[in-house]
Amino acid sequence: MTMPSPRHTEELFGHHEAEQCFLNAFQTERLHHAWLISGPAGIGKATLAFRLARHLLKGDDPMSPTGRRVRAGTHGDLLEISRQIDPRKGRLRGEITVSDVQPIQNFLHHTATEGGWRVVIVDGVEFLNRFAANALLKILEEPPAQTVLLLTTTAPGALLPTLRSRCRRLALSPLSDDAMRAVLPHVSMDVIKRAHGSPGRALFLARDKDGRIAALAQQALEGQPMESALWQEIGQLAREADGFALLCDLLGEGIAQRARHAAQHGDLAGAARFAEKKSALETLRSQTESFSLDKGQAMRQAFDMVSSLEASRPL
Q: pLDDT tens digit string along 257-289?
C-alpha cells in the first residue's frame, strides 16, 4: 500500500488546529511571510503545506482549474523545492544544494501569473547545505509582497537560528490512533501502535510483511548470538528494497527506548552511551546509502554495534 504524494492528497488528518492558525492569520490580514511546519517524519507536514498553498491560490476544490494545476505541478504561482534524485545512484540526494534553491530568486522576481499570491514550499529544510541555507535566509530577510514561504522540517533544532527566527512556527503532533486508522484502514493495529502516530512510518513498517526484520532486530537488541545461517538471511534482506533502512530504523528505535529507560532511572551515563550508539548507527546508515556501500556488510556492522550493548531491560 502506498499513499498519494502530498501534492495529490486532498484530506487532512489530525492537523486542523495548525491549519486554522494559518487561516486565522490570513483572514485577519496578519499573514506572516514564512511558516516553519515541524514535526516527526511521515505525519503530513508537506500535505499541510500543499493544502495551505491551495487555499492561498484559491484552489481548495481539487477539481477546479486551479486545483488541477496545483496537482499537476503546473501552477505558475507555486514552486516546490526538495531533495532531488541523483541520476547516478537512482535515489534522493543527501542534501538540498544552492543550485536547487536558486530558482526561488527567479520565481520571486516575476509578478504573480494570476495576480494573487505566490507560494514557495521547501520540503525538508534540514537538508539544506550551508550555502543553500544562506541563500534561503537572504530571501527570508527581504521577502517580496504577496509571497508566502512554507518550510517543512523534522529537525527544527538543526536549522540556522537566524532562519528559524524569521519564521512563524506550526509544530505538528503525531496522529491519534483513531486518525491513524482513518488514514490507514488496512494496516494492522500492531503496526499502527509501533508507528507512533506517523502514517509514513506505518507504511514503512508494514513492508516487513512477515515480521522477519523486526524479529532479527529484536534478536540483536537482546544480545542473542547470530548463527551462520542468519548472516546469510541478513545478506538477502539487505538486497531487498528498504530492508537495510527498515532494520536500521528498528534498531534505532530500540536503542532510543533503552536510552529513555536509562535516563528515567537516573542512569545518565548509560543514557549517554545509548545515545552515542544511536548516533553511530545513523552515521553508518547515512554513509552506506550516500556512498552505495555494501548493505550486507553494513547490516552486519549494525548488528555487531547493537548486540554489544548491555540490555537495560527487555523490549
A: 999 999 999 999 989 999 998 888 888 887 787
Q: Rounded to an integer, what distance in angstroms lies between the CA atom of residue 148 and that of residue 140?
A: 10
Query: Considering only CA atoms, which of 171, 64, 73 is closest in space to residue 119?
Result: 73
d(CA 100, CA 81): 7
Over the Cα atoms of the chain, what is R_g?
Answer: 22
Q: Classify each residue of 204-216 as buried b or exposed e, where b means 16 or more C-beta atoms within 10 Å of its C-beta.
A: bbbebeeeebbeb
The model's pTM: 0.82
Look at residues 112, 124, 119 and name the one whose alpha carbon lies nearest to residue 53.
119
C-alpha cell at 2: 502506498
Report the distance separating Cα 296 and Cα 85, nearest Å: 23
The C-alpha atoms of residue 187 and residue 34 are separated, in whole angstroms, by 36
C-beta neighbour count of 227 within 10 angstroms: 9
Q: Which residues of the chain have pLDDT under 70?
A: 1-2, 90, 226, 228-229, 238-241, 290, 310-315
| 55, 233, 288 from 213: Cα distances, Å | 42, 10, 18
Q: Which tens digit of pLDDT belongs to each residue from 180-213?
A: 999 999 999 989 998 999 999 899 888 887 788 8
Q: In this structure, is the dihedral angle defined by the CA atoms of residues 148, 149, 152 and 156, taken in order, positive or negative?
A: negative
Helices (H), the chain: 16-27, 45-56, 65-72, 98-101, 103-108, 130-141, 161-165, 177-183, 189-194, 199-206, 212-221, 228-239, 243-264, 268-290, 295-307
